[in-house]
Every structure is written in C-alpha cells, then in structure tokens.
Amino acid sequence: MPQLTKVLIANRGEIAVRVARACTDAGIASVAVYADDDRDALHVRVADEAYSLGGVSAAETYLDIHKLISVAHRAGADAVHPGYGFLSESAGFAQAVVDAGLIWIGPPPGAIRALGDKVSARHVAAKVGAPLAAGTSEPVGDAGEIEAFADAHGLPIVIKAAFGGGGRGLKVVENREDIPELFDLAVREATADFGRGECFVEQYLDRPRHIETQCLADSHGNVVVVSTRDCSLQRRHQKLVEEAPAPFISAEQQDELVRASKAILREAGYVGAGTCEFLLTRDGVISFLEVNTRLQVEHPVSEEVCGIDLVREQFRIAAGEELGYALVETRGHAFEFRLYAEDPSTFVPTPGKLTTLRLPGGPGVRLDFGYAAGDTMSAMFDSMIGKVVVWGADRTQALARARRALAEISVVGVPTGLLFHQAVVNAPDFTAGDGHFGVHTRWIDTDFGETLKSLSGEDEGVAAADASTAQPGRVVVEVGGKRLEIVIPSNLGALFPPRNPAPAPRPQHSVASSAPKRGAGTVTAPMQGVVVKVAAESGQTVEEGDLLVVIEAMKMEQSVYAPVAGTVSALTVTPGDRVTSGQAICTVR
C-alpha cells in the first residue's frame, strides 16, 4: 500500500486549515501554498511548511498545476489534497498529480471526468435509473440552443457550468431576452473559476429543497452513504446554512436517495469522498442534480452526526485501505452556518481587515475558520471567513444551541452575514415549530426577502484597519520561495526600523447601494475588486440601466449600470484593473 508521510494542500482558507489539522492528527506532515495576499494567512501559519506560488490571482496561483506540482516535489511531499473549489474537480490536475508520481487524495481522473462533467453525470444517472429533470444531453454551443430549449420546455430554466460547483457559472433564466447575457456571464464565471466554460441547460424546478448524500467509496468496491443533508438555504445558488441529517423526508425518499447515490458512484468507478446532490419538489418528486467529486464545504455536519473524520477517511482510502464498515448510524442533529464577509442585506462582499473576531464556545459548538483576528480578507478570493457548526441531541436542541452560539459572535472590521443567521434561526419556516418546514432554494430571495432588506451590517462596527500587520518580534521572510518565520526578542525590534514611514491611510468612500442613481454624473465602484468586463467605451451613448462594467470580488460578480441616459466619458478602467469601493469608473452625462 502507498504510504502518506507529507501532504501538499493545494488550496487556501478554512479548508486548507481543516486538512492541515487532519494531517497533524494522523501524524502526517503538511505543506501549504499561498498567493501573495495570503503570505501570512492562517492556513500558512497552521501548516508545517509553506511555499510561495508567486502571484496574486487564482489563475497565477491556486489554479496553476505546474507550480503546485513543482512545490510538491521541492517540499518532498508524496501526496496532494485538493480541498474544495479551485482544482479539486479537475481531472487534468488529478492526472498530472498521478503522472508526477504523487498520491492523489481524491477520486480517480476517470471518475472525475464521468461525474465532474455534469452532462456526463446525467448520462451515468440515467443509466442506473436515477430520477432526472429535463436537460440538454450535451453542452450548448451558443445562446440560440438555449432559446430553443426554453421554447420546447418553457421557463424558468437554468444555465449551469458543466465543470465545477459552488453556484459559480449557474444562472437562472426567467425571461427569454436575458438568455444571451446570462449565458455569457455563466461562461465567463466558469472559465475564470474552473478553467473551462462549457455549460448545459436544465429545467428549473419551482421552490424545491436541496437534498444531498455524503458518500465514501474505497478501491475495494465498497460504497457507503454516511448521511443525508439539507442545503436549501442559498443565496446566488451558494449555500449559507446546512444541516444533517436532512429533516422531514420520508423513509421511502431516504431509501431512494441512498439507492441512487450508491448506483451512480459504483457505475462511475468512484473512489474517495463525494456528494450526490438532488432536488426534492414540494410534491415529493426527487430529481438528480449533480455529483461533487470532492469534499464539500458542509462536510462537518455529517461528521458531527456520524462521528467520522471524513478527511482522515480520505487519507485511508488514498492509501488503499478498506472502509471496514457498510452502514453508518447517525446520532443527533447538526447545523452549519457559513460566516461571510459581506453585507447581510445585499450579500455584496466586503473585503477588509478583521480587527476583532470573538467566537462562541460551549457544548456542541465547533469552529472551522480560515481567518483570525488581525487577518485581512483579500478581494481576490472567496469571502467566507469560517463556519460555525452546532450539534444537538435532536433538531430542537441544536437550534437552541445555534441561537446561543450566534449571539456570542462579534466581528469588527467587515460586515458579515451574522445578522442573517440570527434571523434565520428564529424564522418559523426554518424552525418548523408549527410542523411546517417551508424553506426552499429560493426562499431567501422570495419568502425571506422583506426581512432581508431590513438587515444591515452597520451595527457590526466596521473599524479602521491598522496599517501594520506584523507582530513585534516576528519577521516573515522567503528563502528560495519557501516561507520562514524568524522570531526575535521584542527588545531587539528597534534594530529593524522601517526604511520608509508608513503612508497615511487613504480616505474611505462609502457607497450605500450599487443601484443606479438618477441625476448622478459620476459612476463609482460599488465594492473593492477586479474589473472583469468593460461593456462601454468613452464617447458611447447609453440608456439608463445599460451595463457599463462588471467587477468581481471574492468570487462574486457585481454589474455596474448607467445611472442615466447619456454619453460615457472619462472611462478610467480596463479588464484586470483593481478598484476600491467608491472609486470613479466613468462619467455619464
């Protein structure tokens, strides 16, 4: 059997911290990698070693296969764990790792190709008789094919990236005239995040629940469903709250979810941890959605109810061990609350420095975080700070503990979704205190919409960030691209005065809303981020509401529209430029 002694973690943030801790528990050395903005990130500090990837963007760093494998060899790693996101569902990366003589901690490349491609996964699901909604059998080539599908099956429909997940490259079409723009947006997001822009189309089911199964499969043919989960609370088709086991489903529905999941993974020759996702309609119809060929963000809720460390199981499976069990008994109930750096009323990401981060404790509380107090949230990557996971003997106790844990959290420096979570755990549709469980995948935008508008991140006290991030007596250096920390006695700090005084902090500009404002000539950036598209040019005549620029921050795109009809002038940005919140983009007069 192969031996795991040192694992390269090809990721960042809380999942990299999670994997590094599992390595420590298993007696395995861990190697972190980092982009320039992540040089002093928590995952870098937790790992045994850390190496620079020499870049700023995801494409230059965490998506660069050559750099990742080169670091693995330099560090003497014998295995690679991809985490989630980035290259975790890339068959090409998995194959490159294997070809480099390293152990891939994940499913074989062939299984990723069969299931990571959502179109191919539908073929596998159909072959084994899993329930399916109508969809295209192959990726679509242009907007015209999507329009033809909409004409045949009706609206709404959903355009989905064939590769990747996490809600990226997924656009719901309500109006036929929006198809070209939404198709272009889905392709651009998919290409930026996963390196491939192919998309397919499905019928969009009205107000369904999102139900999934956490699965493990070993190389000896054993497939086990660890638990079900409900992940219906979503914004921008990305999950905010998850729970295990999935509540309020019948024994027959449970049996069908388990049967279909096992059949799909066996047919694909799957090995490793994976998740089969389904939609459950209000009238009880189950429809297969996709397979995530990786560890899920929400895996902790399954761990809490089954008592299994899923990352450690990934290590065992990669080393060729048998699972050793055919059935997993769950105990109690667990919730996961994702804490993002974003305004809770709009979900617009807000990068910045976490000047204060006070977290809860007590019975049944687990914290999986990628940041600590004093860390800075980069605009280049995902906006998730961390996850609060709460367990209880039953759903009622877990909810009570969740209310207590969420009340103990304090974040200063950036607004967060904390107010949203505090409201959700008291919402009747979610608590089901009256026996009615009313949440669905669009519940936040529809049924919860008015409550959402009333939330504001202002009371979380966004404080001015301290320009200095280094700790006294601690120096971080890179030697040959490897990150090293040098600790010196605090009384020697005077020997290392700054060569140049720190510049005065730049004034901050506040933008209350990104919505178009009538009568305003200057158009400003609604958030800090990177310009990914410029749809207008100086001298162009535009109508009110026409698209001007698209800005991306923390894996979310924000469109900026013309506030009035007029002529564009003083356009100051091009694709790839970084902008700050409130920065002038152009003028429309």
In short:
This protein is α+β, with helices and mostly antiparallel strands. The protein is built from 15 helices and 30 strands.
Describe the fold and architecture.
Helix 4 (91-99) packs antiparallel against helix 5 and helix 5 (109-116) packs across helix 6. The protein is 25% helix and 27% strand. It has 15 helices and 30 strands. The longest helix is centred in the middle third of the chain and has 18 residues, at 251-268.
Largest sheet: 8 strands, antiparallel
| End-to-end CA span | 70 Å
Radius of gyration: 24 Å
- Average pLDDT works out at 88
SS element count, helices: 15
State the secondary-structure class: alpha+beta
Helix content: 25-40%
Q: What strand line-up does the widest sheet have?
A: 13-12-9-10-11-14-19-17
Question: Outline, from the CA principal axes?
Answer: globular
**Based on DSSP secondary structure assignment, what is the total number of beta strands?**
30
The unreliable regions are: 457-472, 493-517
Strand content: 25-35%
